[in-house]
Design a protein that fits this description.
heterodimer; A: 552 residues; alpha+beta; seven-stranded mixed beta sheet; 33% helix; globular; disordered N terminus; B: 317 residues; mainly alpha; 13 helices
């Protein structure tokens, strides 16, 4: 029998005082430590994040903390040029627009590569690497590092295999070492993404010398080492990783672009957004990631705080599983959209800081159009469509949502109430965060939330991800032969005007057939202390520590 | 029931008690006198009674549907047409707070009674056969060691794991509550039966040719059940807390079902931005209810314990 049960009603004043003191102490301890760290030096950056990196191997891990770690520890061959954000004067963003006058039609420039040469037909790209670039282990960057990095994708599959298939790179020989500092990627067929995929966050270059030294017969690609350490050419090195608590990064004095302004970055796990907001308000941290809309609005008006709100590639929607009835019928899917109170959701759940998802790809990418949007809240239209589908008396279904995302539950409740008006009974299923992604990828739920962003700012890439019937993340099981053909044709031409034309047709069909319930573009909202400068928005929706400096 | 068995029951051993209606009247007077002497017990009974009445009459008491989200009324502060305000989806908090005990109490009561029934039955068998040198003794030992293993796990973590295994539903929460509480009743009943089964009247029943089942059912269990009853009320309050706790961490009742823990979880993110009411009111309701059950449990413990009863009756006389 437990102590509680033995004593029956064990509440004594001493217990209350002891318990209260312990609780206050426990709550104060981490923030106290963090405050001290911040106060100690202005070149220490403290971040309250929802999670620490689970793995540092970007070939296998897509968790939130891992994004920031990869961006700090590794660099890519190319990068998009940066421009001031048109809405947020202090912020910058990648210039992802089409630039027909520039090489490859993009505002792209070398990073680890000093220069690059792109085949106008889109069949090869050749990189001339910078010389004298050192990894955090002191090894110099060479073409062999690039070759080893791509070979690793071939042999390990997983996320690497996705990049290979997206590019149409079918054999290892496609990546050729042409000299100590010259390397090329050669394709059998033209691919318009050959240059655009190089700046992708999960396409960094490894220090192959160190990785080979750590490899074993059982682990030829140094998986165990890379999972817990870094071997890259990025601006930071990993100093400490305590999963579930914090990761500490140290700036590299020998970084080829100069030592970052922030010497030390403490990336601390604070699971609840309310706690992260409180720590920022109290001055214990410099940045609070992924806050809720109400918290963002509150912080905006506070002295010493700043929130950068920029347009982003994030989208949130509901997957309507076309293989589970009645969602195989486009009329039912349209009805589900007409019954969704989008305006109210944006006002109440997103507090007006998001915008309506009125298309099937990010509205910041070239080629996006909202001219096929027609799903303004109209329950009568929804009822009429259900009647046409032979479901005038409604039906029962279920909606699965992520318990770890605070906006999903209220959206689900509002939708449940709205669907009652058209005779649809919606059962809500709360899925733990740890298993939510598995639940999505199983594709066994009639309706499930999904939040995502295509990291490559390209119309064809976006449409392929979500609406190609062969795509592994087409979680709505949407299949339309015309759309498949349009997507395939878009992937085979380097003529950008032609690609945009094809993808406009594809968007028209998709919007008409409504494989999703379109919810919102939540935007990207970055809460920080006002004296922290340099925020830059990337299409991967992650921050990069090297961008920041502190004003005196 | 035999006279011998009757003589062992909790209240019939009251000082000065007589048989029949007189005993019942004396019990009632004694109970009222105890409530007067210990007003906190009366508060406990009043709270529990009120919560039960609210749970029963909730559909007639609430001004709004407890699951009707009205986005035009989101996060209204307490006052006006929404006495306790509204939550982030525009649901009326007053209506939901009043509806919540229907879920919380139903889960807690069913789960606790299930654990008492299973634990009590197994405990009685284990206790009855423990002194015998047969395979049954080995079985008893096995059952007790299994209970040790179950109780070695932190209750809350264990309950979360069970809900994860069974799936998130009201049935799963009931099963989890029953499962984590069963060892408590098993031990209580075992220790009672262990002592009672060695008494003369049990031996007499055995010599008279009564079967083991008859002895247990008619003579042993009725005399061993009082501590279990005392434990029930404490456990119901605790089960309400466990239900709310599970819902708070996302492993319990699915939103928007009106349930206190789930309501606190839905609203706690708003506290930091100044909207305290979606969490605080269900929190208060939960505290009061658990407090009420704890007081009732304390009173039953006193009333069921002959030593404490004697002290109390002495002070009342």
């Amino acid at each position: 029998m437990s102590r509680y049960h033995k004593r029956g009603f064990p509440l004594h004043r001493r217990d209350v005082l002891k318990g209260g003191a312990s609780a206050v102490g426990a709550a104060a301890l981490p923030s106290g430590l963090i405050s001290d760290a911040v106060a100690a030096t202005s070149t220490t950056l403290v971040i309250a994040a929802p999670a620490t990196p689970q793995s540092l191997d970007c070939n296998f891990d897509v968790s939130l903390g891992t994004f920031e770690a990869i961006a700090a520890l590794y660099d890519n061959l190319l990068e998009f040029k940066k421009i001031p954000d048109p809405k947020q004067p202090d912020a910058f963003r990648e210039d992802i627009a089409d630039h027909p006058d520039m090489p490859a039609g993009l505002a792209i420039q070398g990073k680890l590569a000093e220069s690059f040469e792109l085949d106008p037909a889109g069949k090869f790209i050749r990189f001339q690497l910078r010389q004298g670039v050192k990894s955090n282990w002191g090894n110099e960057l060479t073409a062999e590092d690039v070759k080893w990095t791509w070979d690793r994708k071939f042999d390990l599959g997983a996320i690497g295999a996705f990049y290979l298939s997206t590019l149409g790179l079918e054999k290892k020989e496609g990546v050729k070492v042409e000299g100590k500092y010259t390397v090329s990627i050669n394709l059998d067929n033209p691919n318009p993404l050959l240059a655009k995929l190089q700046p992708n966050l999960y396409n960094p270059i490894y220090d192959s010398t160190k990785c080979k030294a750590e490899a074993t017969a059982d682990d030829p690609w140094a998986r165990k080492f890379i999972e817990n350490n870094s071997a890259g050419f990025g601006p930071y090195r990993l100093d400490q990783l305590q999963r579930g608590q914090q990761a500490v990064f140290k700036a590299r004095p020998d970084y080829y672009l100069g030592k970052p302004a922030m010497d030390t970055v403490i990336f601390r796990e604070v699971p609840t957004s309310a706690s992260r907001a409180s720590l920022l308000q109290g001055g214990a941290v410099d940045i609070a990631q992924y806050l809720q809309p109400l918290e963002i609005i509150k912080l905006r008006g506070e002295k010493g705080m700043a929130v950068d709100s920029v347009d982003a590639s994030f989208m949130i929607w509901l997957e309507l599983n076309a293989q589970i009835e009645p969602f195989g019928n486009p009329k039912v899917r349209q009805a589900m959209n007409f019954a969704f109170p989008q305006e109210q959701v944006l006002k109440t759940v997103f507090q007006g800081i998001g915008s309506p998802l009125n298309g099937c790809m990010p509205n910041i990418y070239a080629g996006f159009t909202d001219k096929f949007w027609k799903y303004k809240y109209d329950p009568e239209m929804a009822k009429a469509l259900l009647k046409e589908a032979g479901l005038s008396s409604g039906f029962k279904t279920s909606l699965a949502y992520n318990a770890g995302d605070p906006v999903q539950e209220p959206i689900a409740i509002l939708y449940q109430t709205a669907l009652r008006d058209i005779g649809v009974e919606l059962e809500l299923k709360k899925i733990p965060p740890a298993t939510f992604y598995n639940t999505v990828s199983e594709r066994k739920q009639p309706i499930i939330f999904y939040v995502d962003s295509p990291w490559c700012p390209d119309v064809g890439y976006s449409m392929t991800l979500y609406f190609n019937s062969a795509s592994f993340i087409n979680y709505s099981n949407y299949k339309n032969d015309t759309v498949d053909t349009l997507i395939r044709d878009t992937a085979r031409t380097n003529d950008q005007a032609k690609r945009l034309e094809l993808m406009t047709k594809a968007q028209e069909t998709v919007m008409s057939e409504a494989p999703w319930v379109f919810i919102a573009y939540p935007g990207y909202h970055f809460a920080r202390r006002a004296n922290l400068k340099g925020f830059t928005y990337y299409t991967a929706n992650n921050m990069r520590f090297q961008d920041f400096s502190r004003e005196a | 029931m035999s006279n011998i068995a009757r003589s062992g029951r909790a209240f019939s051993a009251l000082p000065g008690a007589a048989e029949g209606d007189g005993v019942r009247f004396w019990r009632l007077r004694f109970f009222v006198a105890v409530l007067r002497a210990r007003p906190s017990f009366a508060v406990g009974y009043a709270i529990v009674t009120t919560v039960v009445v609210i749970a029963l009459l909730a559909p007639w008491l609430v001004p709004y549907g407890p699951m009707n989200a009205d986005p035009s009324m989101y996060l209204l502060p307490p006052g006006g047409s929404h006495i306790l305000g509204t939550d982030g989806t525009g649901m009326d908090i007053f209506s939901r707070v009043l509806f919540a005990p229907r879920v919380d109490l139903a889960i807690a009561v069913v789960g606790t009674f299930l654990s008492a029934t299973i634990g009590g039955a197994v405990g009685a068998i284990v206790g009855y056969y423990e002194g015998q040198h047969t395979w049954r003794r080995a079985l008893s030992t096995f059952v007790m060691r299994s209970a040790d293993v179950l109780q070695a796990f932190p209750v809350f973590v264990f309950a979360i794991a069970l809900v994860a295994v069974f799936g998130q539903s009201v049935k799963s929460i009931i099963l989890a509550i029953a499962f984590v509480n069963t060892p408590i009743y098993l031990r209580l009943m075992r220790i009672q039966v262990l002592s009672i089964s060695r008494l003369r009247y049990v031996e007499a029943a055995y010599v008279a040719g009564a079967s083991d089942v008859a002895i247990l059912w008619r003579h042993v269990i009725p005399n061993a059940i009082a501590p279990l009853v005392a434990q029930l009320s404490v456990n119901i309050g605790w089960a309400v807390l466990l239900t709310a706790g599970l819902s708070f961490v996302g492993a319990g009742v699915v939103a928007p079902t009106p349930e206190w823990g789930s309501m606190i979880a839905m609203g706690f993110q708003n506290v930091v931005t100044g909207q305290w009411w979606p969490s605080v009111f269900p929190g208060i309701a939960l505290c009061i209810t658990v407090f009420g059950f704890a007081l009732v449990g304390a009173s039953v413990e006193v009333l069921a314990d002959p030593a404490q009863r004697r002290v109390l009756s002495g002070s009342l006389s």
